Here is the input.
Amino acid sequence: MNFMQSLWEALGSLTTNKLRSGLTILGIVIGVASVIAMVALGRGVQNSVTGQMAGVGTNQLTIFSMGSAELRNPQPLTLDDAQAIQEQLSASGVRQVASQLSGSALISYGSESATSNIYGVSANFGSVNNLDVIEGRFLTEEDMAGQTSSVVIGSKLADKLFDRSRGLVGELIRVEGQPYRIVGVLAEKGSSGISMSSTDDALLLPLTTAQTRLMPRQRRGQVDILSVEVANVTDLDRVTEEVSQLLRTRHRTPVGTDDFMIFAAKQLVDTLNQITSVLTIFLGGVAAISLLVGGIGIMNIMLVSVTERTREIGLRKALGARKRDILVQFLSEAAVLSMAGGIIGIILGWLIAFVVGLIAAANNADINPAVGLDAILLATLFSSAIGVFFGLYPANRAANLQPVEALRSE
Here is the structure.
């Protein structure tokens, strides 16, 4: 008997009792589905975050203002801090420093209006964060110095207000009732950076304009975020320490009681990779238990099958079937069972990941589950190996039956 004949006979035997076969492979299905779903979602999140970090570059440091319970009077970040970092640490690898002030405001054009994020930004904010302008220009140093009413609008916000993102340069809009003129339209980019904020649905105006017109008097001169572009990614750790020391000196804060927080895009990616690895190992352990249970189930059902088909085995041996033929047949049945469980598990795992991805997308989370060919092949081969391993004992037991004793069996 060749392999294909054994395979067809195995399929025929298993389909005679579909319910029992289905229940037998349940453990395999759960184990493989959990692995596939976790790997797909993990890779989706990893690719999403890596892409967002790549949008601003892994050579960027992001500095936030932060209160401290141990400090009586924490100091906010200021434009002077940005200038000090730029001037004093340029020789250490700091290429440029961008400043940002964040808020929200009612933006209107004619009868259309929307409450959206507004960012007061420095002139180099676009280059530091890799923003592209599809029409017009970005904000300039002249806009900063003159505290002009020039604004750059995100493409999604433009669609909300104008139903288009082209031909908008020169249009007049109102921010909290004050007139501003559009000088540029940003290309759509999506969420990016440590804060995962998006400029697609936002309005950008000169930082000095935002400070004087839209912020309370006590906040003038302050900024929320400083983005530091480092020339070489290998210098991130050293530059981070030097920036920390400089800000501690300027804010007069001791080590360990900082009123600021520094994040590196590369650190976030590395942390995410570590979390994904830990979750993969954990889920791998859960899947291994499910596969073990599934394998034991296969062994159990194959032993029952050997008992039920003892007379059939004896008859086949009496008609000339070799020990090897019986062994191959029962191993084929075990392998087909486990492979079927693996295939169903792969499909189920992909569906779970796909549904989770749709739910995430509906909640504005950018997750695109990715099922790699390597994961599919590994799941298929591993589930088949489980079947062969746990089917070996029942197959040997069937192959070693004596024809005379088997034929006497009731």
The two ends are 27 Å apart (CA to CA).
